[in-house]
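re the bet — no i am not wrong, look at it urself. input seq straight from the record:
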Amino acid sequence: MVDGSVGLTFVKAATISGRQARALRREAEINPHVREFAPRLHWTVETGGWLVLGFEHVEGRHANYAPGSPDLNTVAAFIRELHMLACPDVVEMRVERRWEGLAEDVSVLAGATLLHTDLNPRNFLITRFGRPYVVDWAFASRGAAWIEAGQVIPWLIHAGHSPAEAEAWADQVPAWKLADPAAIDLYAQVSAERWRLHSQANPRPSGEVPEYVTVRERWARHRAR
């Protein structure tokens, strides 16, 4: 955080040659298209081998995803509103590519809708006036509209919802409610497999299975039933 001519600014930086710089460039490119939802990008600087972005500072709390939280309606409303935006040309990432190789055909995940794809509670800020802001747009992608709600479901299970309760929350999103159940089944399965493989490739010293794996496996078992 720095204080300057535009007031408090939230600063993100990465070495220009690193992978994080590519993520920051994607954030800078999409920011003008999502200003209704995201903190405004004030400036971009490249100097001394570093890429630095200065964003509007937002004073807010992280969203609460626990059962009964009023924030859950706010998250659902954000997804519905985001679905009304046309996906800008600067968004080149295609969400189905994340699961290629985990199933014979993942084309049901493809689409033309703008997706944030990482609506975890820490990326969802709510001001004291109740206005929501969504941060960290580096992995914005285009894909099937219902996937956005699907990406939130494991976070709801992690926060204490049962898989059935999490899916009932997702029914607030029309695209989810209209989605082919077989496509959701596939998504739940490949999502669990993707994170299981990630866990195997990055084992914890304790040997325990991370909760980000167990919640997705729990959801996949629910869908299989």
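see?? DSSP finds seven helices and nine strands in the chain. told u. also Helices lie at 19-30, 71-82, 147-158, 163-170, 174-177, 181-201, 211-224. so pay up
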